[in-house]
């Protein structure tokens, strides 16, 4: 993998916002507003109260996570440090680099979470077991 990933590389990204009395517009361009080419977009919605999403990490995938509507918390863990981000603005996203364990919770009623990803879906890119993730973090994978 080369470069060591850490929470310090994850941050809130301000997206372009065109304000208009008729309604605002925000857009995302790959390699301009995010440090990757966009290969996939997906979204979570109708998340029941008290439910959690995520609970995994990616080996190589880069993501931008956006609260399109409502709000939720994103818990990140790089194997050494943990940090929580509260997302509630549709013109801001959280950049998440590879090798970051993530859990999403505290979804407000009607929340919609959109994720812009650097790769198409690949099950082999996932860590679904936290212990396996920690072992590879310690190895510097």
UniProtKB/TrEMBL annotation:
Domain Sugar 3,4-ketoisomerase QdtA cupin: residue ranges: 9-134
Pfam families: FdtA
Coiled-coil region(s): none
Top-level lineage group: Bacteria
Identification of the protein by name: FdtA/QdtA family cupin domain-containing protein
Species: Acidovorax bellezanensis
